[in-house]
Design brief:
RNA_pol_sigma70_r2, transcription regulation, sigma factor, 9 helices, mainly alpha, RNA_pol_sigma-70_dom, RNA polymerase sigma-70 factor
């Protein structure tokens, strides 16, 4: 089963997990399998389907390889940061005015909700809802830039942690 699964995954540890999961599944449902005529074919089909599903999930995961990032030259890093900054600023400019102001004060300047509410003469709940709305709008506008969102998170982690 392992060698059969390896033909699909090309990853020994993933194949081991898949085969193990299939065997556990069979064992837990052994009473329900009385109707299965060809257990061997059933098992191979199960392993194949789970392998294909695992490959599909693995390929959806976007990984940020920090080692590759560290190998960027300073000019490449600066250019990448400029691009990130530009896309983010453009997305911010598309926000409704109140959302934009609340987002900048909260997320960029780091002010507390209470201070923002006092400065803008609005309630704390309004600040929370405008910030949440801004985040949702930015998320939808940056949806096509998943790599950019990951890069921004990576930069924020480097700056603050």
């Amino acid at each position: 089963m392992l060698s059969f699964c390896m033909k699909y995954t090309k990853d020994e540890s993933m194949s081991e997990e898949i085969v193990e999961e299939c065997m556990v599944y069979l064992w837990e449902r052994r009473k329900d399998l009385e109707e299965v005529r060809d257990l061997k074919a059933y098992l191979y089909t199960m392993v194949k389907n789970m392998a294909l599903r695992s490959i599909k999930q693995r390929d959806k995961v976007v990984s940020l390889d920090a080692q590759k990032y560290d190998q960027l030259s300073e000019s490449e890093e600066f250019s990448l940061e400029e691009d990130v900054h530009s896309v983010l600023l453009n997305a911010l400019e598309t926000l409704p005015e109140k959302c934009k102001i609340v987002f900048k004060l909260s997320c960029i300047e780091g002010l507390k909700y209470k201070d923002i509410a006092e400065d803008l003469n609005i309630s704390v709940n309004t600040v929370k809802s405008q910030r949440a709305r801004a985040l949702e709008l930015l998320k939808s506008r940056l949806n096509n830039y998943s790599f950019l969102v990951i890069y921004i998170l990576f930069l924020l982690k480097r700056l603050f942690f």
